[in-house]
Amino acid sequence: MPKLAWVRAATSLSNHEICSISKRHQAAKGWCRHLKGVGILKVLAKAGCVADLISVAAISFYGSEPNRDAPVQIVGGANKKDAGSLTFAGKSALVTGAAGGIGTAIVRALREQGAKVAAADRELSGVAAEAHLEGDLLDCAYVEGLAAAANDALGGLDILVNNAGVITRGPVTETSDADWNLSLGVNVEAPFRLCRAAIPLMAGQGGGAIVNLASCWGGKAPGPNHALYCMTKAAIASLTQCMGMDHAHQGVRVNAVCPNEVNTPMLRSGFEKRGFDPDTAVATLGKSVPLGRIAEPDDIAEVVLFLASDAARYICGALLEVNGGKPVS
Ligand SMILES: NC(=O)c1ccc[n+]([C@@H]2O[C@H](COP(=O)([O-])OP(=O)(O)OC[C@H]3O[C@@H](n4cnc5c(N)ncnc54)[C@H](O)[C@@H]3O)[C@@H](O)[C@H]2O)c1
Fold it and tell me: What is the pLDDT of residues 93-127, one digit of tens each?
């Protein structure tokens, strides 16, 4: 994860402390003289990664007399060895929807940070992972056995990402029974069954983290003409909050990421079906986002990794909106 944090030069860490943390990095010393302490770096220092972070930030700012009250961008340096609670060395993860837009990014990011990954999807030929568990999430037997299969293949299960999803469009009056079964089956029932199987496994191994993919549309502000999709995403959000409370005592943290629009096949296929050119439509949609663009899969994957990581060790039952500043209206 090359970009770790924005921190504000603020409090608590003395120049002496920063310099001693980063003493093996000569370049950092000049920068440290100017910067009067950054509280969050203290936390990062405990995670064992601050020296490299400081050194990279120092190289960026060295010679430019950084303003101690200005925001400081940590521009890199979180290598696998030093990133402490944000690394996944020795961790095993199961990711559903692993061949999709966001799923591909999650699998790649987890593996880059040292995790072993069991990928699950209907077709996985192009997906690099330690285990490939192909199947249909509408098949109850497959879903019921998936957590155990990942556990067996990887020698443990620390992380489950319920990422697979389908979108059905239209109001209720244009929604078929097949739409209902598909939406509920993939977006709600499969994560329910997977969590039910994974939680005891994780608890028995000392704990774990589950991250569900909900949506900005699944909560207080559903989008128009996607009744079933919004309802299923509200359901998984609610389930996340309940499981987050109910299983924290077992050391299993359950949280959800709620993206707004993300540039993936799910979104692009919708434009195509409505006769729009996806690239043009994505660019136009980006203008409605305060950050100036819709999300890319990596923007979501990195938040998933944060919630799955030890850095989020005190977060349970949270629904984290990732929206570029664009609320659903
Ligand atoms: N793209 C967006 O704008 C957006 C916004 C908010 C939330 N989300 C959520 O993010 C998650 C990932 O979405 P994405 O945009 O990457 O979509 P995507 O269509 O690119 O990927 C979804 C993946 O789920 C898999 N899948 C679907 N049905 C399955 C089944 N029956 N069995 C096994 N696998 C199945 C698909 O094969 C696919 O690889 C979804 O839960 C989605 O609802 C996406």
Answer: 999 999 999 999 999 999 999 999 999 999 999 99
Cα separation, 45 vs 38, in Å, equals 11
Ligand 1: which of 104, 262, 294 to mutate, most ligand atoms within 8 Å of CB?
Answer: 262
Cβ within 8 Å of residue 162, ≥6 positions away = 96, 190, 191, 194, 195, 210, 211, 212, 213, 236
Distance 24 CA to ligand 1 centre (A): 45
Domain ranges of the chain: 6-73, 88-322
Count the alpha carbons within 13 Å of 124 in the hemisphere toward its beta carbon. Answer: 22
What letter does residue 288 receive in the DSSP assignment?
Answer: T
Task: Using the predicted structure, report yes or no on whether residue 308 has a pLDDT greater than 80.
Answer: yes
Rounded to 5 degrees, φ, ψ at 63 are 90, -10
Specify the amino acid at residue 146.
Answer: L
How does pLDDT run across 247-261, given as a tens digit for each residue? 999 999 999 999 999
Give the separation between CA 73 and CA 213, rounded to whole angstroms: 28
Question: Nearest to residue 8, comparing CAs of 78, 82, 72?
Answer: 72
The predicted model gives 315-321 an average pLDDT of 97
Atom of ligand 1 nearest to the CA of 136: 32
Q: Does domain 88-322 have CATH number 3.40.50.720?
A: yes
